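User: Fold this; tokens only.

Assistant: Input:
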Amino acid sequence: MGPIAVVLDHTTAAALHNPKDPHNEAVAAFYVQASGGLGTLYAPVLSLTPGDSEQSGLLPYIHGLRFITIEPFDTEAALTAAALLHAGYSWADVHAIHAARPSADFPAGRFLLTLTPDLYERAGVQAVHPDQ
């Protein structure tokens, strides 16, 4: 089995950004594993953008981390986002959902690392809490 692909949503990105967050160490452990080649971390840019409005500096901080790949917001993501927004999901959630769903590059999808896994129950993704 190859490295595990993991998408950070805005909640886990914020926890990683804030060393005083109670979940910081658990999320940082995923980053350490990625730095050792045991996984790949992705951060959807549209999820980080609203997160940055709540926690200033979040987007540039995550962008500056060597072992996190920023997932761009393209037309395919926008089409998914539009449908998810109509279904009641927030702007912060829609790009993370899109990135975690199965795709041509990730036929089984990617794990979605989140502090709010219940939010994603009906989103067609494998949402996991970093402390579990």
